[in-house]
Amino acid sequence: MRDRSVNVTDGPLFGPLLVLSAPIVASQVLQVAYNLADTFWVGRLGADAVAALSYSWAIVFLMVSVGGGLTVAGTVLVSQHKGAGDFRQSHHVAGQTIAFVSIVALAFAAVGYVAAPYLLMLVGATPGTDPHTWATQYTRVIFLGVIFMFWFFIFDALMRGWGDTRTPLYLMAGSATLNVVIDPFFILGFADNPVFVWIGLEGLEATLYAATGFEGYGVMGAAIATVIARFFPAAIGLYILLAGDVGLSPTPRDFVLRVDTVRRILDVGAPIAVEQGLRAGGIAALTAIIALAGDDAVAAYGIVNRLASLLFLPALGFARGTETVVGQNLGARQVGRAKRAVSLASATVACIFLVVVAAAYPFAEAITAVFLPPGDVGSQTVIDYGAAYIRIAGPAYVFLGVFQILLGGFRGSGSTRTAMVFSVQELWLFRIPLSFVFLAFLGLGVIGVWYAVAISFVASALTTGAWFLRGTWTDNVIDDERAGDAPGEVEVAD
What we know:
The chain has 494 residues and is mainly α. It folds into 2 domains: 227 residues, no CATH class; 246 residues, no CATH class. The chain has 18 helices and no strands. 79% of the residues lie in helices and 0% in strands.
């Protein structure tokens, strides 16, 4: 395979940061496209449908976060063995990761399908209401197809470890496109579907409806479309992986689980899964708090959360790129260059966020309204809540961007425990307690939650920045020998 590595220890820093970050941003944009498409088309059904999607996402995000943390072990171990020239062991780890995470996915599917209605109650969905019923249907379908979602995560992680980020990106592009195309038909069917109006085929819509009577599956249709769209890239990815067409080539015996290899996967993946699980659990807890303000508040949170995910992508991409730059420069004993990389990335992301937030500020209501039925008077409360979030929490995203870059610097140095502590404190020390106090005790309603979000971003950036300026994080340099002895301490950047 052609070496696509980037020289980050010599010459300019900004160019390598862009090259390392762009593929990650592109992949994440496509991932967010799934969520935005679901929200847009489910929004045609009304605020209760959007609320159902928000309740369900709190549970789905927890599952995806834990599973995604485990797949990172494949990235770390494959990359380490390839770097050491032990390609046979890279193939072995690939097979073991696929087998082990597949078993985890099947366990999640069984438990999640049965427990879905009860889990949704925990995040605030009221049994017997439309949001709870629809959210249960959506969540159960997602759990039935979770194995396909995890297979693609595994393929993506293994290929990143091997050094190929383009193939997963191409498959993700195809998957997102398919989801966007089939979403409106599975959700709305052939009755009053605006797609036919947009393309001037109202007659075809009438013919199809007369022949089938299909009015869509509603909220559950979004889950069906997602599972279908996930199946094809997962199947194609596993096929080309098993065929050995992309470098990695696990043999049948590599899929027979070995205790020592599974232990190594857990050593590397479990801490990441715990961190991601705690953050996902925090999102679920925050959803439950917001539910105290009613379904309209939850619907608004679901909309702005997906919009925020899109805004978050530059920070995530640069944070992952920063991990690589910091790690390689600290390994080369170029501490000053590593610190400069963090400062450069922080300034770049802060400028991007300032521009985006300033552009969105005057159009807060219009942006929120895009995801709700046009002219629906009952949706006005949701629009008002969403617009308030953009105006109150929006400016604080500048601090969130810097916060994420600082975490990337810590991880790149090998200070993964430090990064975990600061990552978790933003949600569990600041955002959740303040949200509950502002909403439940000070009577500020969901607007109080928006202020809590803004405060948590600012406070986390300040505390993390203070630790960064101490400079002690540069002492935790992971060299090749230590990386081999203690893989759980290393997070290999994309």
